Amino acid sequence: MYLNNLTEKLKSFSHLRNISEKYIFITLIVFVYGKTIGFNFVWDDYVLYRDFIEKSIPSLLFEKQDSIFSVHYYPLLLLSHKIDFFFSKFIFIDQIDKSHFTFAIIPHATNTFIYFIATIFFYKLSNLFFNNQTIAFISTLVFILHPIHVNSVAWISGRTDLLATTFCIISLNFYLQFLSNQNYKSFFLTLLFYFCAIFSKIVAINFIFAYALLFLYFRNLNRIHINKKIITFFSSIVLINFLYLYTLFNFSFLDQAISLKTNQEINLKQIYNLFQLVIFYFEKGFFPLAHNILSIDLMDNDYFYLKLTIFFMIVGFSIYRYYIFRDKIFLILLTLFFLTLVTAYYSYLKSLDNTDMFNISAIAERYVFLPSIFSSLFLGYTLSLFKNKFKIIIPIFIIVFFTISFLRVEAYRNNLSFAN
Question: What angle do CA 147, 292, 373 make, to 5 degrees?
């Protein structure tokens, strides 16, 4: 009897712990991003609401959108803005001018709510990946307070990466469940949310690498056998990507990629610049202290050799953990971080053939939002290794991330703060 009562109390405590963790997540998100509710539209936000939101729903769902850089097709993203606009008109009907800050209240609130959803599923994902609540909790704190997320959460137009990443996190949750239980519910939900992700932003197609690499990792860990369900799943993922890319580009991007070598001379300086780009993204994913709202100048990268040293230290540490402790997690997460940036590398290579200097330097740090899933897991797992007196590093790290994010949000208050 006593043992049964003790068991029930432990279960109750575990339930309360889960609730308390969610309250912590909510508090941090509100504290960092709650003030964005009072922010105005910034830069591209005006164009978004002027050119797209007035369109009919069928045109938003079925028409491709042209920009100065490429062709886009993100119907779910535009539909979410359409819903925001509908409620903004309904609530603030007296404000006829769409540039009035009251029209930005609901879009900002929607961004914050989507980020909360992403956080809850990221916590579930961390638990599934590590099977350890402490590591999952630390990783989620890193994810919530990651400074690289400010650009996509505090900026209405940045919802592209936020929405696509949220769907990818949810899809990955069901994918890990699918690898475990092999049931059709997890199978279809994984595909459904991946489908939603790529129709929010094209960067989600990079997630095919995550599915493949995580299958190889968990296959050895849990002795998963290749069967008809696994083959059908990956065939479906490839088919979805094929149809999406064919519809959007007719695969013209492949012709451009193949012709890069023939149309221009790839010299050592361009290769060096590409490597600088890799280090730039590495910095943004693992120690994002500098703030680049729009772009970077690859020709003038401050403290490059310091960043390069840290890069090789982390790569070396990951290899060391694998060969000494047979711990594959660091190498897996580091590899996934760089693989989910493939579309960003392609954008840079494509820009080499463009004489427009703005296009060449327009490598936004928000491209790291999706890969930050894996850098947050990497950092959370690393912090969990600190023991005894070194545990003080964990709260210091969290406080630094919190401070940077909290201050960085202010840049998106209005056009003046954005320009500064």
Answer: 40
d(CA 136, CA 142) in angstroms, rounded, equals: 10
DSSP assignment of 250-305 equals TTHHHHHHHHHHHHS---HHHHHHHHHHHHHHHHHHH---S--SS---TTS-TTHH
Angle between helices 228-249 and 207-222 (to 10 degrees): 170
pLDDT of the residue at 398:
94
Radius of gyration of the chain (CA): 22
Q: How far is the C-alpha of 404 from the C-alpha of 388, rounded, in Å?
A: 27
Q: What residues contact residue 305 under an 8 Å CB cut-off, 6+ apart?
A: none
Closest Cα to residue 341, out of 391, 401, 384, 281?
281
389 — pLDDT class (breaks 50, 70, 90): confident
Which DSSP string do the residues of 349-416 spell out, in sequence order? HHHTT---HHHHH---GGGGTTTHHHHHHHHHHHHHT--GGGGGHHHHHHHHHHHHHHHHGGGGSSHH
Q: What is the maximum alpha-carbon separation in the chain?
A: 79
The three-point CA angle 111-145-389 to 5° equals: 165
DSSP character at residue 281: H
pLDDT digits (tens, 9 = 90+) for 72-109: 777 888 888 888 877 777 665 455 455 555 678 888 99
**CA–CA dist 102, 127 (Å, integer):** 39
The answer to whether 374 and 340 have CB atoms below 8 angstroms apart is yes
Predicted local confidence at residue 194, as pLDDT: 96
User: If we measure between CA atoms, which residue out of 180, 196, 194 comes closest to residue 229?
Assistant: 180
Buried b (16+ CB within 10 A) or exposed e, 152-166: bbbbbbbbbbbbbbb
| Residues 276/341, Cβ–Cβ less than 8 Å | no
Place of tokens 């969610």: 22
Measured between alpha carbons, how far is 294 from 409 in angstroms, rounded to an integer? 14
Question: At residue 321, what is the residue type?
Answer: R
pLDDT of residue 39: 86
Cβ burial of 1 (10 Å; 0-12, 13-18, 19+) is: exposed
pLDDT at 130 over 80: yes
φ, ψ for residue 178, nearest 5 deg: -65, -40
d(CA 259, CA 27): 51
Check pLDDT > 90 for residue 273: no
Question: Taking each helix axis from N to C terminus, what angle separates 75-91 and 105-130, rounded to the nearest 10 degrees?
Answer: 140
